[in-house]
Amino acid sequence: MSDLLEILSPVGDMERLYAALDFGADAVYLGGTCFGMRAASANFDDDTLAQACTITHERGKKLYLTCNTLPRNFEIPKLEGFVKGAVDAGVDALIVNDIGVFAMVKRFAPDMELHVSTQAGIVNYATANEFYNMGAKRVVLARELSLEEIAEIRAKTPSDLDIECFVHGAMCVSFSGRCLLSQYIVNRDANRGECAQPCRWGYHLMEEKRTNEFYPVFEDDSVTYILNAKDMCLIEHIDKLAKAGINSFKIEGRAKSSYYVSVVTNAYRKAMDIYKADPDNFSLPQWLKDEVFKVSHRAYCTGFYFGHPKESQYYENGGYIREYDVVAVVEGCSGGRIYAQQRNKFNRGDELEILTTQGEPIPLVAEHIFDEFGNEIETANHAMMKLSIGSDMVVPKNSIIRMKK
Length: 405
Fold this sequence. Notes:
CATH class of the largest domain: Alpha Beta
Number of domains: 2
CATH topology of the largest domain: TIM Barrel
CATH architecture of the largest domain: Alpha-Beta Barrel
CATH superfamily of the largest domain: Aldolase class I
Strand content: 15-25%
Largest sheet: 8 strands, parallel, barrel
Number of strands: 24
Distance between the termini: 40 Å
Radius of gyration: 23 Å
Oligomer: single chain
């Protein structure tokens, strides 16, 4: 077992930063206002990046900044300022892809730790070793590798080269995320953070000489989403991944909600702690296995870790499975009440549960709901309203109250 077993969580804004840190991330990764692969995320400017670094370091955690697009000529002059801004903010590492960017970062910030992005498509130990020789501290391996291939890369690379792998979240149908489909169809460059995800769309066939006639592609009498990949979920295989030599367990989802970040980070944190406590007898309780199904997700698979993923495509639709809603976030507990801020509508008598950082979700029936003035109400139906729920429980601030649909 490696000394470093890191849960690495995605962060799209300050709310999600707190979510990741509160629920157990060892490190977070996020993007600045340029050079990041999630252009649609809120991302961080110079001021908020510095704040994020301060908050993260106060918790004893690390923060990695993405610099992993394929920049065009006109963007190169901006790179020096971006890198120096990262140094000033105090980021712990830059995640890079392009070899020219790699060399420029080494020149502008020779002491900056460098992680080579999954966008670089590292699938063998020779490439990993060359990046190490160039000064990389970490390689983020391509998602197309089996567990045996990862173990061989670990065995044939220096022990002080970290290996990071994605273990949860969306899979890209293109090799390591390098894709031109979005750019061809809607002129949004996936390699510069603007992917429109056309692989999730439904498609029809059109015969050459019948230009106004569209023929659906059927699979069991429904439209086929021929490029739509399932989501990855490896929570039940933490032991195998750790024993193969993976150091950092990366969760995908910088564009996803703070609820997603909280729940998935918490689940992998708990799973990792169980593994560390008894590596030879790793087994998860059912409630923890269930947690990853309580966020918005596609059907799950295990990617390429255990061989060719024959069942990795999802043909029924391009959407998500969503069975739970966040109804409130806890702000405090006192006087026999849980004080919270509403997120989605719920009613008196609804069966809820509270997700804390401390263990299994706690059932809660909303027998009495009060508005911010202490008046009892039948329903909480105003967005972001202050409220309280009658209960003698004491749970940590920022615990999540949710309800099954």
